[in-house]
């Protein structure tokens, strides 16, 4: 099997590192109907990473190495390069416009004109010590006619593009890429984790209607909002499922590990229909622990933190005037979305329809592919496949990884 047939997604999260390996099920690479076949999916506990930020390059690199070794052993294939996720509170964004004159004398707009317009949008002033990760075209304007989605082949003199620019702190980007490069792995592209997740779980119709993806991870919750096919906003909320576990540990006066086991077995995101007289004994989780705990009390502890996360999401929606106004509703995904009754809590708090987000348009016999915590890793594979097959206006136009490769290689002896 040729190496270029293999697409690898490396999702570096705060609590675990996940690797998904895919290949096209159709030999015709340009065939848009060809589905991805996920042939491997592995997970490794993460060390040296906190809230999406690398806190120890050595520990993080060792964790990535273990994850890659597991993936290679599971598939029997060498892994040489990957699409890598990036997230964290340092990610910022802004809107920028680029304007160019159409180069061809007959006025026909070509892909080169579109790329020049996008390049012009990249000349925006970035905050100090930040660099551009993604430049995502939203819509085009030709000679004053706005709202054009795909200008290629149209005729005009002046081409303008509105883009959504995503930036990351240079030091954090360098730390992340360094810990990956130390494993010997090449980085195909750095992808904001929320964008990769959206690629995995959202259909084009949902993006057109208006939808918000909420990816609840261990230490952070990432959101992305789409409408009319365009990315409206992204945000990183510094609260995740580990905060729920910490709340349980504090309220039940028990260890983090016992609290996590309690959450997984008895935890629910809403107190609705939970009887206070229903109880469980902590002794079943640890022989040194004892005490009867009301399931209603446990639900109240979890519900309080879940509502806080959803309130923060609603604050982000209010900023763009989309609170309660997204017809395709909420798509929940990520490891933290496995909490029972989370959909009910979501509908009540955000006043929107809600559903779980599983990867679509893929083929696999691996159970983990349908695990909510693997959606970003699978999304990275889909991102890579889409990027390889054709120019897509939803993909970023960035040279950040090329610059970082040169930077890293300059440090090597």
Q: How would you characterize the overall build of this protein?
A:
By secondary structure, the chain is an alpha/beta fold. It folds into three domains: 3-89 and 170-202 and 359-411, Nucleotidyltransferase, domain 5 (2-Layer Sandwich); 92-168, Dna Ligase, domain 1 (2-Layer Sandwich); 237-355, Nucleotidyltransferase, domain 5, CATH 3.30.420.40. Helices cover 34% and strands 29% of the residues. It has eleven helices and 19 strands. The protein has helices spanning 57-75, 111-121, 170-181, 193-201, 204-209, 241-252, 256-266, 295-319, 342-350, 375-389, 400-411; strands at residues 6-12, 16-24, 36-45, 49-50, 53-54, 81-86, 92-101, 130-142, 145-148, 158-169, 186-192, 211-216, 221-227, 230-237, 279-281, 292-294, 330-333, 354-356, 362-363. The strands form five sheets. The protein has a six-stranded mixed β-sheet, with helices on both faces. The protein has a five-stranded mixed β-sheet with strand order 14-13-12-17-18, sandwiched between helices. It has a four-stranded antiparallel β-sheet with strand order 7-10-8-9. A hairpin with a 2-residue loop joins strand 13 and strand 14. Helix 4 packs across helix 10, helix 6 packs across helix 7 and helix 6 packs antiparallel against helix 8. The longest helix has 25 residues, at 295-319. The model is unreliable at 390-395 (pLDDT under 50).
